[in-house]
Design goal:
Blueprint lengths: L11 E3 L12 E6 L4 H16 L5 E6 H4 L3 H9 L8 E4 L4 E4 L5 H13 L5 E10 L2 E10 L12 E8 L9 E9 L8 E10 L9 E9 L9 E7 L1 E2 L3 E3 L2 E4 L5 E7 L5 E6 L4 E4 L2 E3 L2 E7 L10 E10 L2 E11 L3 E4 L2 E4 L2
Parallel strand pairs: 2-3, 6-13, 15-22
Antiparallel strand pairs: 1-10, 2-4, 4-5, 6-7, 7-10, 8-9, 8-11, 11-12, 14-16, 16-20, 17-19, 17-21, 18-20, 21-22, 23-24
Helix pairs in contact: 1-4
């Protein structure tokens, strides 16, 4: 039996400017039965496209007997209520659909994905996952990059989808769970919502083959019209990322900026072993940036390298990372550390 728990926290903050986000991540959703004739016929096309488009699109296979009564399939019916045969296939949460048999499923499905790829997304989406046993949490940030609000009364929602990268059905993915949480506040242009979604997945055969997707959609045309995918992102394992990985400062360029990325629940602190480096601010919440300043008057003779250590904790997660800092213009790497050239 599958149990699903959902917890969501939304925090709104004003971003800088509006406009369109980057490239759209196409998601093709295939609802079928592995034993069905039409589904088996479509399987080779799904497998070929999954291989060709790895990293550029996500093709998901759902067992219709498990998910047929789930709201995730109702998104298909909202776009194509007259479909009669499995598989039910759609991209963009209903932007384009197809059902049943076709002489060349590869051409049909690749055409759906091409149409979806040509559209601009309406948000930037980042997602991180963390797991303990059968419990999986997804930490997501959604920044509205369009000129229109993402509205509660237009069913703005986030789907957290867990799947197994294995040939259990007719393709190389098999969805294990799909949980939805609707937004509780409108997301204005330039604002960011931080969402936290939790699922208990007891049906995963091999967690080494697990995949995680966060998909955001709404009904921008109102009423009972079709859904439209705002954007999707493949969730990455939770971690603390510091960019850049190394820094160089000098009397002529005494300041440098460091960016931190990771789950939004992480609180961080930074410290250094060098009195000649100043950190401002020295703590905060991810994602964040801070500035280091070189103080040459405090630098001991012969000491030209230092380490920044960043520690982050939150929601039972603990991460540490370090960044090497060197003084000077030209720098060479020695033994994993940065050393100024003479």
């Amino acid at each position: 039996m599958k149990r699903t728990l959902i917890h969501i926290v939304i925090v709104l903050s004003i971003g800088l400017g509006t406009g369109w986000a980057g490239e759209r991540l196409p998601v093709l959703e295939f609802f079928g039965r592995p034993a069905g004739t039409f589904c088996r016929q479509a399987g080779p096309a799904m497998i070929q496209l999954q291989d060709e488009l790895e990293g550029r699109a996500v093709l998901l296979e759902y067992d219709f007997d498990i998910f047929g009564g789930n709201d995730i399939v109702n998104r298909f019916w909202a776009a194509d209520p007259n479909a009669s045969y499995l598989p039910l296939v759609m991209v963009g949460s209903g932007y384009r659909t197809h059902s049943g048999y076709h002489a060349d499923h590869y051409d049909v499905y690749s055409g759906l994905i091409a149409d979806e790829s040509a559209r601009a997304p309406r948000a930037d989406v980042t997602a991180w996952w963390w797991r303990s046993g059968d419990l999986v949490r997804c930490y997501t940030s959604v920044r509205n990059t369009s000129d229109e609000p993402l509205r509660v009364n237009q069913s703005a929602e986030a789907w957290f989808i867990t799947y197994e990268k294995a040939r259990i059905g007719v393709s190389d993915t098999w969805v294990r769970s799909a949980t939805r949480k609707r937004f509780t506040a409108d997301l204005e242009p330039g604002e960011t919502a931080h969402l936290e979604v939790e699922a208990v997945v007891s049906t995963m055969d091999d967690w080494q083959r697990a995949g995680f997707l966060l998909l955001v959609d709404d009904r921008p045309f109102g009423g009972n019209d079709r859904f439209d995918m705002i954007q999707a992102a493949e969730a990455r394992p939770a971690t603390l990322e510091a960019t850049p990985e190394s820094l160089v400062v000098s009397p002529g360029a005494p300041t440098a900026e460091l960016a931190l990325r990771g789950p939004h629940v992480l609180e961080w602190t930074a410290e250094t072993d060098a009195a000649w480096l100043e950190i401002e601010p020295a703590s905060g919440r991810v994602p964040d940036t801070f500035v280091i300043t070189y103080l040459p008057e405090l630098q001991p003779p012969g000491e030209a390298t230092a380490s920044l250590v960043i520690h982050a904790v939150g929601d039972a997660m603990v991460f540490d990372t370090s960044v090497e800092v060197a003084v000077g213009g030209r720098v060479r790497r020695s033994g994993g550390r940065l050393t100024p050239d003479p």
